[in-house]
Amino acid sequence: MQIADRCAVSFHYTLKNDAGEVIDSSEGSSPLAYLHGAGNIVPGLENALTGKNPGDKLSVKVSPAEGYGERDARLIQDVPRRAFQGIKDIKAGMSFTADGPQGPSRVTVTRVAGDMVTVDGNHPLAGENLNFDVEITAVREASAEELEHGHVHGEGGHHH
Is the Cβ–Cβ distance between 76 and 119 less than 8 Å? Predict the structure, then answer.
């Protein structure tokens, strides 16, 4: 069965940056499962997998526009340390959920200077090319429940 919209797809992957460093991988764990056409994975990878079959192996370079987007300087801001109530030792690299105009979003602390904390709301991979090595392990028709929920369910059914 070829990968098309409304299919449940499983694949193993290794994701590298342009320097060849491994960012993420399914090696040693279960394949990643997703519902094709539901926006469960980055658009550039989903587009490249369309029409492929179980057993196919491919390398895909996904541009920022088809991945996590370009970096947006407007998502970097300085906020007063007092905005982090109850957290005594704020350090670069810490992540928090912040309430914004579009609802909750994830921010990462990039700098702490005196009473000001710089946070970045960009996805950590925004502005980066995503280099995937993929092996498709399974393709099947999605169940009615999976289609209704917009994602693949695990072995034995519903798990959320």
Answer: yes
- CA dist list (Å): 93 to 66, 96, 119: 26, 10, 10
Pair type for strands 103-113 and 130-141 = unpaired
- Alpha carbon distance 39, 157 (integer Å): 21
Which pair of structure tokens corresponds to residue 78? 């300085």
pLDDT in tens, 114-129: 999 999 999 999 999 9
Q: Kindly state the tokens that stand for 15.
A: 């994701």
Tell me the C-alpha distance between 107 and 94, whole Å. 9
Give whole-number Cα distances, 79 to 76, 103, 123, 154, in Å.
10, 18, 19, 41
4-14 per-position pLDDT tens digit: 999 999 999 99
Q: What residue type is 11 in one-letter code?
A: F
